[in-house]
From TrEMBL:
CDD domains: crotonase-like. It comes from the Eukaryota. InterPro entries: ClpP/crotonase-like_dom_sf, ECH/Chromodomain_protein, Enoyl-CoA_hydra/iso. This is Ech-3. SUPFAM superfamilies: ClpP/crotonase. It is found in: Peroxisome. It comes from Pristionchus entomophagus. One of its GO terms (cellular component) is peroxisome. Its main location: other. One of its GO terms (molecular function) is delta(3)-delta(2)-enoyl-CoA isomerase activity. The keyword tRNA processing does not apply. Transmembrane segments: none annotated. Keywords: Isomerase, Peroxisome.
């Protein structure tokens, strides 16, 4: 019926509005925030979103009023790495040896970034979302976070500079457990081996004290 069609169209429009696939940037105090917003797909990153993250890092670098650049995700996941959905990825461009794709440009920007890089890991981080944390200056994670790099399953080499950064941070054997054998690194062990600097209870991660700590150029846990 006409009523059912209108209702279906309304629901479709609403669903489209709710499902954001974007990268949001905003400034709080002395911190430039970059937030991955693709919660329906566990914050996996599309080609356009990689471009947006690179643009955000450029903006943060050129902002004279900020000292810190913080990267985080929305919802329960930090990021499940790349979103290779055909509609969201130019496969011909990605396969070209002459084109530097979004993830590689992102890695280069993290390495060359002039500001202090902070990672606020609000949940699990997979693949390149986990490996690029090794390029940051300080990482805080939720107690629900874990880190996994399934490169051996996918048949690809470690990315994000992790073949260098991981052994330097956590030692050769533990790093190879992640990179070669798809072992999972839990939040508590990530703190113990130095991959993250602090683990917070999930409910405290977005508390006003945590955000204020980042924004004022200092970090403290709510109960420190």
């Amino acid at each position: 019926s006409h009523l059912q069609l209108c209702l279906y169209c309304s629901i479709s429009v609403l669903s489209t509005k709710i499902h954001r696939m974007s990268v949001r940037t905003f400034v709080k105090g002395s911190t430039f925030w970059i937030r991955i917003e693709n919660a329906k797909r566990a914050n996996s990153v599309t080609e356009k979103m990689w471009d947006d993250m690179c643009r955000g890092l450029d903006q943060a670098n050129n902002d004279p009023h900020t000292t810190f650049t913080a990267i985080t995700g929305e919802g329960d996941f930090y990021s499940a790495s790349n979103d290779f959905s055909p509609a969201n990825w130019n496969t011909k461009k990605a396969a070209s040896k002459d084109v530097e794709t979004g993830p590689f440009r992102m890695g280069r920007r993290l390495i060359d970034h002039d500001k202090i890089l902070l990672g606020l890991v609000n949940g699990p981080a997979w693949g390149i979302a986990a490996t690029t944390l090794g390029l940051m200056d300080y990482v805080v994670c939720s107690d629900t976070a874990y880190f996994q790099t399934p490169f051996c399953i996918l048949g690809v080499t470690p990315e994000g500079g992790s073949s260098i950064s991981f052994p330097e941070i956590m030692g050769t054997s533990r790093a190879n457990g992640l990179l070669l054998f798809n072992e999972r690194l839990e939040a508590a062990e990530a703190l113990q081996c130095g991959f993250v600097g602090k683990v917070l209870a999930n409910n405290d991660l977005w508390s006003i004290n945590t955000i204020t700590g980042f924004s004022e150029g200092r970090f403290r846990a709510p109960h420190d």
